[in-house]
Amino acid sequence: MKALEGIKILDFTHVQSGPTCTQLLGWFGADVIKVERPGVGDATRKQLIDVPDADSLYFTMLNHNKRSIELNSKNETGKEVLTRLIEECDVLVENFAPGALDRMGFTWERIQEINPKLIMASIKGFGPGKYEDCKVYENVAQCAGGSASTTGFLDGPPLVTGAQIGDSGTGLHLCLGIVTALFQREKTGRGQKVSCAMQDSVLNLARVKLRDQQRLAVGPLKEYSQFGEGVPFGDATPRAGNDSGGGQPGRILKCKGWEQDPNAYTYFIVQAAVWEKVCDVIGKPEWKTREGYAKPPERLDKLNEIFAAVEDWTKTKTKYEVMEICNPLDIPVGPILSMKEISEDEGLFATGTMVKVDHPERGEYLSVGCPIKLSDSEVDVVRSPLLGEHTHEVLSDVLGYSGDDLKRVIDSGAVGEVKA
Ligand code: COA
User: Fold this and answer.
1) Which of 417, 404, 400, 420 is nearest to 81 (CA)?
2) What is the pLDDT of residues 277-297, one digit of tens each?
């Protein structure tokens, strides 16, 4: 048995943010029915194509464990089928541009009339307010959520991060909202609306930077490199380069081979609790007791000197050797792993975090599996559906259309080309 077995999801999502949420629900065992425009489908199916005539990796990696039904939700018969889906499903998830669902005729009020138990979950770029009508993509959310202004180096422009905190980050937030609403429905019997704005989700993930914004009012941020370098602080949380976001100073340092390998680096944290071990490892035992070095606050204006000494040592070791030496000593370090290294990491395959998936159009590909492990609800990663692969199955098995009625729906043109 899977955790969400028996829960039906009307998946009206597209691109990345919504699909990451419904993919998780599918991994937890829900029956996810993805509704796509006939003949077109989710735009990502044909974006960043690497294998001609096959669904892209962009699509396949975000849409595992789903069924696909083609449905024109603006056509009269299409609206009838959508209404039946709303009646049958437990959750509707969507991330259309603001107002798109209303324009189709499916306002929240109308949806509640059709099925008062339905949970309707939406992602928009911004919450209510002056920007609520904007269309929003990943990097816009990273910028508007405060993340970009605090990412990068002090002497450079704001930077977006590679991790998709705007899209996938919001999908995760929405998923939590949905299962919480399902839990509440157990007691109340009622559905509810769950909303996540991408700006809010990014801000939530960047909350330590708002912490620093307030700390700035009472003095400089002493753990930031710029403090030790004597660079004055302005009135907003600055870009902190690779400084650790917490109370323990940390940096990215070069390792053996850095001249050729762009990822021969390690993250190194000079944690107060293991300072003496750090001094021994890097060959600076005198720093253990020397005034100005022995106590954490005294070291804050010497971080450049200290990390330069640590780097002199890390440059003599590979990033893996640094890990092997420091780990047993409880010195927190981490190799900078490339996507190539991750895609060859047997340990990640063993836990199901990385998976190989077979696909009829493109053959075998790699994907990230479910990063959340439930001991009593195992995840089987099932390939993404072809466009409209389950239209007939959903119409007949889920919605109960049969005989002349089924023929009427198919002939209406609302559900694309249907293969029985
Ligand atoms: N049948 C008929 N029409 C359909 C349909 C279907 N099955 N599915 C979608 N459509 C229509 C929509 O109703 C809409 O029509 P309208 O403009 O007449 O109302 C149209 O397709 C386009 O939808 P839209 O959501 O506006 O897509 P877009 O490609 O223009 O914009 C986004 C894409 C992502 C910018 C936008 O959807 C958005 O801002 N979403 C919310 C934030 C978000 O999730 N962003 C991150 C995405 S990773």
Assistant:
1) 400
2) 999 999 999 999 999 999 998
